[in-house]
Amino acid sequence: MAHVILNLKLCGPIERKPDTAAFAAHVQMVDRTGATRFARTFRIERGDENTQVVEFDAPWGIYRLGVDAAQYGCSASTFVSLFPDTSRSVTVHLSAHPAVGTVPMLLDGKAPSSFFYVKPTFEIFDAATTACGKPIGTPLASDIRIDDESDAYYASLYPEPPIPPGVTPLLALRLQTPTHQYHYVRLPVPLTWGAWPSSLRLNVTQNMVEALATDPVGTLLCPRLWETSVS
Q: Which CATH architecture has domain 2-93?
């Protein structure tokens, strides 16, 4: 099982209610087959904050997480991946007019707490102008969002803005050095999007990060140690 800490950012109709008001939020997690793996209705007090929190345990896996505050016509949805025996914080924005969400590609993995001191982020490059051992090119426009936990990270790579026609994308992990320069590590993975999230896993160890210390900055590094697997 995984523990979920769900942060609900309130929508306007709920924000306008008194602090003592309460509302019902139905939380549902659906897997790739359409089966509901978790469903519960929480009674939540409006309070004096515009974000309220509920917590629950759910089976590990990849889900579409939906929240519905039907009384006020507000809802939200997102895709999440959960590891067994871990806690993950997820934030959703309730809205009276929720946008039709695009389906991301998910990339996640276990990582030591020290990993987050190097400020990990992901960038996409044109493979034609960025090669192993060569100076890094200019990153393509992208929408990549990362959630960090104490023992894992979760990245969502969205298909908008689209990869330019004729460009072969190359994904790299960017890590900051103590001198505020950057190491770039190539991740040899295909970038694919569809009706359900494709999912890859890259577990990071302390040794993997420390091994980069003497490598050149501003250059595309291609160590064999950094390999992904389908999750």
A: Sandwich (2.60)
